[in-house]
Design goal:
The chain is mostly helical and 233 residues long. It has 11 helices and 3 strands. 55% of the residues lie in helices and 6% in strands.
């Protein structure tokens, strides 16, 4: 997938450690702040991480099959928000550190391409920090790892299937030496590129180029349709 041989497992651990350090700086009110992940507050995103690292795969498959008819976006939303609501910030932080800093990671967050899990962690960190006015900058090597991964992402772990959205487009980062593809150009900072490609609306408005409108149309007809909940009888 990527043009270089990245150790995405180690990059995941680095992202989790950075996020833990940030969460430890939050006061109680900040856990109730809205995020870029529509409908989720900070506590819900942390709940999402805890659920991802603590629920074993057999239980996940049972829940998906019998409660959500394999609608992964709806399942992730409802289970994560429920967990986030039912636990205090102190408990959420304790469980986050317990599961994400374990010597061996377990749970459904370890199933599937590790580069997609890395992207998920990078994106959710931004989801929290940007609305707070405390954006974080990725180290250059992590920017490159994220950009190389995002354009090849098939969406096997629930993240947006970006590979479909960027077909026939040229993607260029303006804050680091990186470019991919041929066709109508989309350019912007790494943060805005990655967030826009995975369905965040505000970062999409910060991108430039003839390919932006094409991307907007593809997101509207594919990603939002895919993410829509289904009725469970």
């Amino acid at each position: 997938m990527a043009t270089q041989n990245y150790d995405y497992r180690q990059l995941v651990r680095a992202e989790l450690l950075d996020l833990s350090h940030f969460l430890h700086t939050l006061n109680k009110a900040e856990w109730e702040e809205p995020t870029l992940c529509e409908g989720w507050r900070v506590r819900h995103i942390v709940g999402h991480f805890v659920v991802g690292y603590s629920l074993p795969l057999p239980k996940v498959l049972w829940i998906l099959a019998f409660q959500y008819h394999f609608n992964l976006p709806r399942a992730a939303h409802e289970i994560s928000t429920r967990y986030g609501e039912e636990h205090s910030p102190e408990k959420l932080l304790t469980e986050f550190d317990r599961w994400t800093q374990a010597k061996k990671h377990t749970g459904m967050a370890t199933i599937g391409p590790m580069e997609e899990h890395f992207l998920d962690h990078v994106i959710h960190h931004w989801d929290i920090t940007i609305p707070m006015g405390r954006p974080r900058q990725l180290p250059p090597e992590r920017k490159l790892a994220a950009l190389d991964a995002i354009v090849e992402t098939a969406g096997k772990t629930g993240i947006a299937p970006v590979r479909r959205f960027v077909k026939g487009l040229s993607i260029k980062a303006t804050d680091i030496d990186w470019q991919w593809g041929e066709g109508s150009e989309i350019k912007g900072e790494t943060q805005n590129l990655i967030l826009a490609l995975t369905g965040r609306r505000e970062p999409l408005e910060k991108l430039e180029g003839a390919g932006v409108e094409i991307l907007r149309q593809r997101l509207a007809t594919e990603w939002w349709k895919q993410a829509a909940p289904v009725t469970v009888s």
